[in-house]
Amino acid sequence: MGHVTVVGGGVIGLMAARELRAAGLDVTVLDRGEIGREASWAGSGILSPLHPWRQPDAVQPLSLWSQRAYPDLAAALAAESGIDPELLPSGLLLPDCTDAGAAQAWAKRWQVPLESLDATALRRAEPALAPHCAGLLLPQVAQVRNPRLMRALRIALQRAGVAFEEHCEVLGFAPREDRIAALDTRDGRRPVDVLLVTTGAWTGDLLRTCGLALPIAPVRGQILALQTEPGLIRHVVLAEDHYLVPRRDGLLLAGSTVEHVGFDKTLAPSSAAALRAAAARLVPALADAPQVAHWAGLRPGSPDGTPYIGRHPQFENVYVSAGHYRSGLTLAPASAALVSALITGQRPPLDGAAYQLERADAG
């Protein structure tokens, strides 16, 4: 099999490159910009789908497999790179959850620990929270400091012999019978042996150039970073679409927006104000917390958040792993293990039928 070219240097591509390199393959990662600087950098680092009981069944095995894998993965990356990804088992706290019954049924079905908290227990868990009647706690949910994770991945992969090429935008494909023989880039044509496309929000547009229509499109998300005293809150707190993610050093992320505006990462002051207001409704002390940063990323939106992982139906040497929407960091380890197994012909760690690319035509 020889050499695999991974197009897309986000967490999905880098974790797949790690698996492929471990299987003994030569790997080169290309990125249209800088490695690890798009959605994988811009996200919150919560290692769970938001409201996991609202996600399709197909997302659950990827999520649960990945959550089990992360502690050992984070430790290995810290040892290999010298950078601690800061995996933190903070738990996910949901005050006044509107569909607690559905959450409890989901937890029972998938055997996930879930605790119901009354107002007193909720206040004890997070004294800084505004008063709430009740809440739910997923105690095993962790978070990771995703910019550190991406740096750790890159350094570990470089030390393992993976090659990187930044600012190498792929414009199209050069087919030869039932294979893609080369990539057309801004720097010219380059031959490929095996190709893995992990280009996030850009995947839909790129794959249309080789006849594959996957419904993957950009969805902008804006996040506000506030500086607080370490320990102001200890859990990730989620109330509908708004969340708070406390880092060890007191940095707190308040997110996020969901905006269908194409490939536009323009920041809106009104969005920053709305994110702060939502944060302050949850934790009143955040009303006056200093703002450190405000940024936006482009999520790879797919119809229901179920990613596309599999081989191209027309070209036998082309594979895809994309469309993870808001859960790329969460689903990356399992997605990487699955697509690597498909490429190498090994036994996959879980059934991949639900992620096949052909389902886009059926839908």
Name its key features:
single chain; 363 residues; alpha/beta; FAD/NAD(P)-binding domain; D-Amino Acid Oxidase, Chain A, domain 2; 2 domains; eight-stranded mixed β-sheet; six-stranded mixed β-sheet; 10 helices; 17 strands; globular
Report on the structure:
This protein has 363 residues and is α/β, with parallel strands linked by helices. It folds into 2 domains: 3-81 and 146-216 and 303-362, FAD/NAD(P)-binding domain (3-Layer(bba) Sandwich); 92-142 and 218-301, D-Amino Acid Oxidase, Chain A, domain 2. Helices cover 31% and strands 26% of the residues. It is built from 10 helices and 17 strands. The strands form 3 sheets. Strands 4-5-3-12-13-14-11-15 form an 8-stranded mixed sheet. The protein is globular and about 65 Å long.
Provide a count of the helices.
10
CATH architecture type of the largest domain: 3-Layer(bba) Sandwich
In the CATH scheme, the class of the largest domain would be Alpha Beta
Q: What is the CATH topology of the largest domain? A: FAD/NAD(P)-binding domain
Global shape? globular
CATH level 4 superfamily of the largest domain: FAD/NAD(P)-binding domain
- The total tally of domains equals 2
Please tell me the overall pLDDT: 96
Structural class: alpha/beta
What fraction strand?
Answer: 25-35%
Strand order in space, largest sheet: 4-5-3-12-13-14-11-15
| Helical proportion, percent range | 25-40%
Low-confidence stretches: none
Determine Rg (CA atoms, Å): 20 Å
Number of strands: 17
Give the SSE order as H and E letters: EHEHHEHEHEHEEEEEHEEEEHEEEHH
Biggest pleated-sheet summary? 8 strands, mixed
* N-end to C-end Cα span: 33 Å
Domain FAD dependent oxidoreductase: 4-341
Pfam families: DAO
GO molecular function: flavin adenine dinucleotide binding; oxidoreductase activity
GO biological process, one term: thiamine biosynthetic process
